[in-house]
Amino acid sequence: MSPKVKSLDRKELVVKSLEEIGRRICGQIENGEFPWIEMKSRSTSNIFYSPELRQYALGEKTIKRSARVVSHLRPFTQMVWTAYFVRELIRQRKTSTLRDVYYSAQAYDIAFDDQSESDNIITDLETVIGYPREDFNVFPEERSAVFGDLTIRYTVPGYENRRLNLTSHPDGMMIGPALTNAKFVKTTADKVIVIEKGAMFTRFIEEQVYKKFNAILIYTSGQAPRSTRYFIRRLNNELGLPVYIFTDADPWGMHIAMVIISGSANAAHLRELTTPDAEWAGVWASDIVNYKLPSEKLSPLDIKRLSELSKDPRYKGGIWQREIANFMKIKKKCELEAFSRYGLTHIVDKYLPERLSELGA
């Protein structure tokens, strides 16, 4: 789907896709068949990295879930109910969380052993119809935020056409369903700065980084939730804003950046959660040396993770292999907050302008 498709149109397309599943199942039953649903396999053997898409994707292998097979009856029933439930969410213009879906099933005597089972069925449904759960109005718990000169217009019921500037709250605005689906009205920003850590996000707001660097600030709270990754992609695609990602200097920080850029194997069935042209701007292993930052030794688990990343096709680019090699050479890691050794504003006064200039921002 094109990111320029209107939100309402997307909802209509999702409903049509869900209703088509229902019509096919009814038709199968009327024809005397055991009803079945086919989808692409999400097994690791059917996941590959696509250089063209610049993300993981699913291959051509498919699986069939049929009521004819006793072991398939449970997940088949769960998926049919989930399709019905999310259709009703869209039709009634309501939202739900992953946790809420799990509990709502109990009201219909649909049994899930735990939330991970219901989450997996939702992912199956995404795979069947080709739309992310956010288009079903199903979201994770909110935990990321945004701050900057961006005026949005709400589209959610009760708030339609209300406008809000995202500098309105000094702690930033939570990136929830209402904000994710809002229309972008206007901005003076010319870039997006993504920050892994909450303390640094707050510091950047206090130091008015959004004004000094003409930026929209995004806080990911570690691994960015899917709604946040979609929001970042929208800022890049719809407003043409380049994206710069700042994480801790360790293999886990590298991975946080890469998931924003190239996605994950878990979301290989989706196409609208990546920002391929975003850049990992630091903190790099080489920064630990060049800026003489306080650091810790890499743990055996860190080194194992670096070895895994070095073999991952997403990390074949120059900067990734260069910094993996630097990590392995110095055997050290550090956090974004390490710049505070030189004063509370050092990262804003020195590191940020130097790095953004280096990247041509």
Question: How does the SSE layout of this entry go?
Answer:
Layout: H1 7-30, E1 36-40, E2 47-50, E3 55-58, E4 62-66, H2 70-91, E5 96-97, H3 98-107, H4 115-129, E6 138-139, E7 145-147, E8 150-153, E9 163-165, E10 173-174, H5 177-180, E11 183-187, E12 191-195, H6 198-206, H7 209-212, E13 215-219, H8 226-239, E14 243-246, H9 251-262, E15 279-282, H10 285-290, E16 296-297, H11 300-311, H12 318-330, E17 332-333, H13 346-358
What does this protein structure show overall?
The protein is α/β, with parallel strands linked by helices. It folds into two domains: 7-139, Arc Repressor Mutant, subunit A (Orthogonal Bundle); 145-358, Dna Topoisomerase Vi A Subunit, Chain: A, domain 2, CATH 3.40.1360.10. Helix content is 44%, strand content 17%. The strands form six sheets. It has a six-stranded mixed β-sheet with strand order 10-7-13-12-14-15. The protein has a three-stranded antiparallel β-sheet with strand order 9-8-11, with no helix packed on it. Strands 1-4 form a two-stranded antiparallel sheet. The model is unreliable at 1-7 (pLDDT under 50).
Q: At the first level of CATH, what is the class of the largest domain? A: Alpha Beta
Question: Which descriptor suits the 3D outline?
Answer: globular
Placed side by side, the strands forming the largest sheet appear as 10-7-13-12-14-15
* End-to-end Cα distance: 30 Å
Strand count: 17
For the record, the count of structural domains works out to 2
pLDDT average, as an integer? 94
Q: What is the CATH topology of the largest domain?
A: Dna Topoisomerase Vi A Subunit, Chain: A, domain 2
Largest sheet: 6 strands, mixed
Poorly predicted residue ranges: 1-7
Written as H for each helix and E for each strand, in order along the chain, the element string is HEEEEHEHHEEEEEHEEHHEHEHEHEHHEH
CATH architecture grouping of the largest domain: 3-Layer(aba) Sandwich
Fraction of residues in H or I helices? 40-55%
